[in-house]
Hints:
The chain is mainly α. The chain has one domain. Helices cover 78% and strands 0% of the residues. Helix 7 (114-133) runs parallel beside helix 9 (168-178) and helix 7 runs antiparallel to helix 12 (250-269). 45% of the residues are buried.
Amino acid sequence: MDLLLLLKAAIMGVVEGITEFLPISSTGHLILASELMNFWSKEKSDVFVVAIQIGAIAAVIYEYWARLWGAATGMFTGEEKGRRLGFGLILASIPIVLVGLTFGQTVKDFLFNNIAVAMGLIIGGLIIMWIEKHPPQIKAKEVEDLTYKDAIWIGLIQVLSLIPGTSRSGATIIGAMFLGVSRKAATEFSFFLGIPVIIGAGLLDLYHNYKIFTTTEDWVILGFGTLVSFISALVLIRALVAYVARRDFMVFAWYRIFSGLLILLFAFTGWKLW
């Protein structure tokens, strides 16, 4: 067993767990971390980046099991809030599934690079700043209060997250806030919306590329990274919900802009960190 590779997988898992639900782009950070650490081959690393996100989203299922079960059963029992959340999540998932299946591989081939990540970070940071300075009137305080129309619009906005650096969480949270959803409800809906999208994308990518993992060690590395992402994401989810209850996202906007500019500086000057 390559212990150095296992350590790098653990670091990637921590990066995923910490960044998946923050509006700073988990995929972008994973791509950058992979390049900085020279983690695995390009083919294996690209699949790893997508697949370990399943660990992070499993943390959401674990943390919110009762509410998710209520949404699932509500679609059949007719319980109003559960039904609205359940069908809302389905409607919001349709756009990215259709676009992802059609153009997902093209995006992966052409935009999984540091320049695309940098531009996505900067533009997203500017949008977060704008929405924080011009907050709309809140019309949905809890996630169960979202209308089907809100869900569809958030789903359309989520399509932008196919571009690395944009951030699925950032797009859905800020998009929901723009529609008048409270910060807490927008964050939780983003958590829930990631379940079908991330699990579907991870399993589909594994299905298409599982043959590149040729040894038992390869699967151990992948499984270990996924486990670490689950544990670190579970900690982050609880911390983030507590954070958004009393603070805004401006710190993440500045972080995105600074990171994007730094990435561009290194990309165009050819400087190396080590």
